[in-house]
Amino acid sequence: MQRYLPPGLTASEMDRALRAFAAVVGDEWVLATDTDRDTYLDHFAVDESAHAPAAAVAPFSAEEVSAIVKLANEFKVPLWPISRGKNFGYGGASPRLRGSVVLDLSRMKKIEFDIENGTALVEPGVGFYDLYDYIQEHKLPFWMSVPGNSWGSVVGNALDRGVGYTTYGDHTSRICGMEVVLPEGEIVRTGMGAMSNAPTWQAYRYGFGPAWDQMFVQSNYGIVTKMGMWLMPAPESMLGFEIEFDKADDLEWIIDVVGPLRREGIVQQAPSIGNWLRAAAVLTSRTEWYDKPGALPESVIDAIRKRFNIGWWGLSTRFYGPLDITEATSKVFERAFNGRSVMSMKRVRWEQGDPPELSAWAGVPITFPLQNASWHGGRGGHVGFSPVLPMNGRRALEQFHRTYDRYNEFGMDYHGSFALGERHITNVNQVLFNKDDKDMMKRVDGFFRALVNDANEKGYGEYRTHLDYMDLVANTYDFNDKALLRLNERVKNALDPNGILAPGKSGIWPTRYSGERHS
Ligand code: ADP
């Protein structure tokens, strides 16, 4: 395999740096063979080599992280921190800047749990499965919130604003207190953690003065070595609905019916409205139905829907808490659908004592949604396109039609969902592809750019994006000649004068590498 180096660094300088890292972590934790490097590639990327790392180094403690960061400053080696590196669709374990050294924190797996308050203090290597096992083993009366593919880490997911399905599903908003290694190696604790031995580090988010937790989310200002996270008390009951809708245009009224219930706080988690392919892509694969290129014709879509009895859209929601409350909420929810035509509306009911519902609704880690990467056959992958929309049915429907037409124009199968926040909609679209289909892969970049451009014209920005498009998306946040990007970069240069930490992350480039920005 070819060796990749960051701009301005020679192979012998990199080797010296790696030897210095090895003196901190031990030889076995500097990972620089071809196989090692291959492990850290983004296997879902259109061009894996665009973000190939030089090597990886895996420290075991915040002190080791700090020592490596200091050496990285000395040797001018860019580092890219990952927790478990499973951020597929957005870049996996790979760095934005080719030739960076991946700082793999997956060996750091400590969990501290405050049983009284239901808060966990976790290190970056703690996966959703690890925390789940810990909760089961200690019989703790708390439920996690997990993302659809739960193979990543609690820390990494919250740092990229990943979401789950319970009332605690907006993970980044449940962060409470962090320990962070700054780009020059200093270790700080945020919020109440700034007081030595404060018993409230995981209880009160802000501390005194400016609150910094969100400054370390989707940024390149620090390496999080511990994160506080709130968990949901195990509810007495979980009731809800699975609803199927027949027509694509139903989307408008569904949002106008459920949106107000979200604003009023009656529905407390984010119901997600997904199209037929989101359901079908984990049940079957395209080759069973159609063998021609281009988007699937309506007749095939109808046949797939019929076989699995799925709507054009499906909506799932759950209510948590004492049975008196969840039953009342169910009634109010059902009443809101009075007089509306739905294909089917199935009630879901779980009470303490029932066997656990093994689903993300119950905070149980799952990985089966990853199956959708095999939709086309071949080496599958996907990239996520996720603009934020206002909570408005008409605008959502318009955005859907715009997006759907683009999928058809570029010959791709539409895979979209609308998750209803309290005041906004996160419109997650997956672009599923087959990396062995050269023709299809050639279309992906132009398609993605068209989607970003269309959304931008309406003032809809992405909440998260793949490494390839971080500059493109950062440029759409353009008020006052990109004043926010300039602020972000002023802070970056102040905290990280050598530009060693995750250069280019979220479009934020330190001066040292500003020539690497592209559009
Ligand atoms: P996961 O562990 O869920 O797979 P990743 O490790 O892929 O998550 O990280 C998701 C994103 O968050 C990446 O952009 C990564 O650079 C960033 N990130 C992950 N862990 C940390 C950390 N401990 N400190 C700072 N940034 C991090």
Topology summary:
Blueprint lengths: L10 H15 L4 E2 L2 H6 L15 E3 L4 H14 L3 E4 L18 E4 L6 E4 L4 E4 L5 H10 L4 E2 L10 H6 L15 E7 L5 E3 L33 E8 L1 E2 L3 E9 L5 H13 L8 E4 H5 L17 H11 L4 E9 L1 H14 L7 E8 L28 E6 L2 E3 L2 H17 L6 E5 L3 E11 L3 H20 L12 H7 L2 H17 L24
Helix pairs in contact: 1-3, 6-10, 10-11
Bound molecules: adenosine-5'-diphosphate (ADP).
Task: Give me some keywords for this one.
globular; 4 domains; 30% helix; Uridine Diphospho-n-acetylenolpyruvylglucosamine Reductase, domain 2; 8-stranded antiparallel sheet; 519 residues; Vanillyl-alcohol Oxidase, Chain A, domain 3; binds adenosine-5'-diphosphate; Uridine Diphospho-n-acetylenolpyruvylglucosamine Reductase, domain 3; alpha+beta; 5-stranded antiparallel sheet; single chain
Main sheet summary: 8 strands, antiparallel
Question: How many extended strands?
Answer: 19
**What portion of the residues fall into strands of 2 or more residues?**
15-25%
Instruction: Label the CATH architecture of the largest domain.
Output: 3-Layer(aba) Sandwich
At the fourth level of CATH, the homologous superfamily of the largest domain is FAD-linked oxidases, C-terminal domain
State the oligomer: single chain
Give me the number of helical elements: 13
CATH topology of the largest domain: Vanillyl-alcohol Oxidase, Chain A, domain 3
Which regions are unreliable across 5 or more consecutive residues at pLDDT < 50? none
Give the distance, in angstroms, between the N- and C-terminal Cα atoms: 28 Å
Bound molecules: adenosine-5'-diphosphate
Shape: globular
Instruction: Give Rg in angstroms.
Output: 23 Å
| Count of discrete domains | 4
Average pLDDT level = 97
Q: So what's the CATH class of the largest domain?
A: Alpha Beta
Helix content: 25-40%
Q: Report the structural category.
A: alpha+beta
